[in-house]
Specification:
With about 625 residues, the chain is α/β, with parallel strands linked by helices. The chain contains 21 helices and ten strands. It is a multi-pass membrane protein.
Length: about 625
């Protein structure tokens, strides 16, 4: 725990579930400590001036009701003499106190404003810090984490729930400042009449105990609301990304029903949560008003009747009590509010937890380049426990050579390729580069030397230039153009409305499959990778596009170690080694020619493709 509190205090605090669940947020406060402290100080000042105002109001009432009594002093000579004017007439004293009330009221308002503003600033900083922490977590997590999560849920975590958390700070700060105001009120009331105060406190404690059950309901409802929000966001994300499929299947009714269910559930759970939260304040106010009435009757009956309380003090007491009731109501509402955030807080807490998530262990050896070969030694791999996708893969890929992976769909070709940039680590066995375990290399240095060209090239919402030079700094324009030219992409790029400055992706021009692949090839060429993974780079293209791609791939492959996955055997005829996979196992390996002569699996594929052609 980063927050340095004395051990006994933190031990006590850790026993309370609210602290245990939420202390992870407090760690973020160190990034904007000054703002948070200013927010608290301004709010406290606002409360102090509230107390001072009450003091002056009491003074005003006393001077007004008993003008002939000896003037009240506060004990500071210069203040009593020059500000309160104890030697002047009662009317002059009244004016002076009225001016003091006016001044303190305005000072209080100024501090309330400053307090509110700095609290909002602290809230924004907190949301910002939490978003950064979540993103940092995303960056560190292994790919397998993302494959198991729904995009909508993660987006909701980083935006919606981080925002909820932001509001939680506002509420927590309101709890602190209102708590302080309440303290000031209670002290003022004690000063005016301790007996009445004790009775009031007892009544308010009773009220708070009664509300505890309601607050529990608020917390429970918030968990339900978060689950339904996750489902809703995921559903909408899925619809938007899969809208082509929805339209082609004319699945409007089906999707509408799904959406309707999700949005109705969203409404229902949020309404349930709101119903519980919204009850807190009116109930408190109603009960507090009853308490007020009881107190009024008690005060008048017991104290005034028996002459034990001055009318001025009674009026001041009731004035304070009147102001206390809404503060108590606000504190209770804030408390319920804090509890209504518990669902979001819990969801972010779970996401930031580190002990239950897949992280890639980083090595320390800088990967400077491949010298001899990549070796798979008895590698097993499973995405899910007990279901091996790769079994006992032993394979050597020599530097500068092309190794082709062939096999039926689902045989495990892409999985083998994904193990090289360490998207996943083997379940058993080792992958060695020049005799060094892949896991001992610094992952960034390793990945910088590997490029992947696959059929689902991701195009970012930015210019063609930035797409080619993705994540690279200070890239020479001539190098980008050269890469585009070698990738056979220059011509189509120059024909785009703004050439290399044309925006691509959702906000710009949509590229054809072949064009996307050529952008991917240019991207890979610019990086000048040592190891190149080509994953079915030539699928689903017409013969002209395929020729262009094939040519650019040949350019890209020159002098590199290539791992090629292709269903079309024509693209891998020149491979130095062909590895045939079946259900996660290697069934044949050798040169294309050797394997054909052996008349085994590759020969069968070869025959099949020739028959279909
Ligand atoms: N993320 C994943 N989670 C669980 N199982 C997966 C995942 N990705 C792939 N698989 C499974 O692993 C097996 C191998 O898949 P892989 O994509 O490596 O095959 P492939 O030979 O490349 O197939 P294709 O030629 O169709 O792309 C398949 O049975 C597939 O269902």
């Amino acid at each position: 725990m980063d927050l340095k509190l004395p051990t006994p205090i933190s031990t006590i605090l850790m026993r309370t579930s609210l602290w245990r669940n939420n202390y992870f947020i407090l760690r973020e406060f160190k990034h904007f400590r000054k703002i948070a402290i200013s927010a608290i100080i301004f709010s406290l000042f606002a409360a102090v001036f509230e107390g001072i105002t009450i003091g002056f109001i009491t003074l005003f009432l006393q001077t007004f009701t008993t003008p002939d009594a000896s003037p009240i002093k506060i004990g500071v000579d210069w203040f009593d003499l020059w500000v309160l004017g104890i030697n002047s007439s009662a009317s002059s004293r009244l004016y002076r106190v009225a001016i003091l009330i006016f001044l303190t009221v305005w000072l209080r308002f100024s501090f309330v404003y400053l307090g509110n503003f700095t609290t909002t600033l602290a809230e924004l900083h907190l949301a910002n810090c939490i978003r950064k922490r979540i993103f940092d977590q995303f960056q560190k997590l292994s790919l397998s984490f993302f494959l198991k999560k729904r995009a909508g849920e993660l987006i909701n975590n980083i935006y919606g729930e981080a925002n909820q958390l932001r509001l939680a700070v506002g509420v927590a700060s309101a709890l602190i400042s209102k708590g302080f105001t309440l303290l000031v009120y209670t002290l003022s009331m004690f000063w005016l009449s301790w007996q009445l105060t004790v009775i009031s406190i007892l009544m308010f404690v009773l009220l708070a105990t009664g509300l505890a059950t309601l607050v529990k309901r608020v917390r429970e409802a918030s968990f339900e609301a978060v689950t339904s929000t996750h489902y809703f966001m995921s559903m909408v994300m899925e619809y938007i990304t899969g809208v082509r499929t929805v339209q082609v299947f004319a699945a409007y009714d089906f999707e509408f029903q799904r959406f309707n269910k999700a949005t109705t559930e969203l409404m229902r759970t949020h309404a349930k949560s709101a119903a519980a939260s919204a009850l807190v304040q009116p109930i408190t106010e109603a009960v507090a008003s009853t308490i007020l009435l009881v107190m009024l009757i008690a005060a008048v009956a017991v104290f005034v009747a028996s002459d034990r309380l001055e009318i001025a003090s009674l009026l001041a007491f009731l004035f304070v009590l009147l102001r206390t009731a809404p503060v108590v109501a606000q504190i209770n509402a804030a408390w319920a509010h804090v509890n209504s955030f518990q669902g979001s807080l819990n969801s972010i807490k779970q996401l930031l937890k580190t002990d239950d998530k897949p992280y890639l262990q980083n090595g320390t050896i800088q990967f400077l380049g491949l010298k001899q070969c990549i070796e798979f030694v008895a590698v097993d791999f499973a995405y899910n426990p007990h279901q091996l996708v790769l079994k006992d893969i032993t394979l050597t890929m020599k530097r500068g050579q092309m190794t082709a992976l062939v096999g039926a769909s689902g045989a495990g070709k892409s999985t083998i390729a994904d193990l090289l940039p360490r998207f996943y680590d083997p379940t058993r066995g080792k992958i060695l580069i020049d005799g060094v375990d892949l896991q001992d290399f610094d992952i960034n240095t390793l990945r910088r030397k590997i490029a992947m060209v696959s059929q689902d090239t991701f195009i970012f919402n930015t210019s063609v230039r930035n797409n080619i030079a993705y994540a690279m700094e200070d890239v020479d324009e001539a190098a980008i153009q050269k890469a585009a030219q070698l990738a056979n992409a220059l011509e189509f790029i120059q024909n785009l409305p703004e050439g290399f400055d044309t925006q691509l992706g959702d906000r710009g021009v949509r590229l054809s499959g072949g064009q996307r692949q050529r952008i991917a090839i240019a991207r890979a060429l610019l990086r000048n990778p040592e190891i190149l993974i080509l994953d079915e780079a030539t699928s689903a293209l017409d013969s002209e596009a395929e020729r262009l791609i094939q040519e650019s791939i040949e350019q890209l492959a020159v002098g590199r170690t290539v791992i090629a996955i292709a269903h079309r055997l024509s693209t891998i005829v020149r491979a130095d080694k062909v590895v045939v996979l079946e259900q996660g196992q290697i069934v044949e390996q050798g040169t294309y020619k050797e394997l054909l002569e052996r008349r085994g699996k590759l020969w069968k594929y070869h025959q099949m493709q020739h028959q279909t052609n």
